[in-house]
Amino acid sequence: MIREPGTYALVDGRELRVTARARDEVWVEEDGERRPVNRNDDAVQLYDVVVSARWHGEPVDVSGVRGRMVGIRTNSSQLAEREGLAGDQYGGWHGETSADQLTDVEEQVRPVPRRNP
Asked: Which of 23, 49, 54, 79 has a CA-to-CA distance to 61 between 20 and 30 Å?
């Protein structure tokens, strides 16, 4: 299963999706409800998840996950033209495919630095 790209917070041993970031707090979603968390609290760890893969032999970034479907982005005009992706040379191209069409899926986890109070 491919994890949804984005920012996450580890709070009390639970990984929660961050829905908004501010200077001193982040908003997390837990059991369908949003709540603020102090991002400078030593018990809170923030990290970004970036997912890349190959689709039809070309590198793509995963932009979202919904069930078995994934959103993808690419800067390859050849892939975009061949596969009929929406977009342009300035913002890149995007589309959707099933997760089983992706190969070489790699997930990178990058810590988000704490802010100085």
From this structure: 23
How many whole angstroms separate alpha carbon 93 and alpha carbon 38? Answer: 36
Between the alpha carbon of residue 43 and those of residues 14, 27, 39, 40, the distances in Å are 11, 15, 9, 8
Token pair listed for 56: 């039809």
Helix, strand, or coil (residue 88): strand
C-alpha–C-alpha distance, residues 13 and 27, integer Å: 17
Report pLDDT for 116: 62
Per the CB < 8 A criterion, the answer to whether 99 and 2 are in contact is: yes
- 57 exposed, middle or buried (CB, 10 Å; 0-12, 13-18, 19+)? exposed
CA terminus-to-terminus distance, the chain: 38
pTM of the predicted structure, to 2 decimals:
0.85
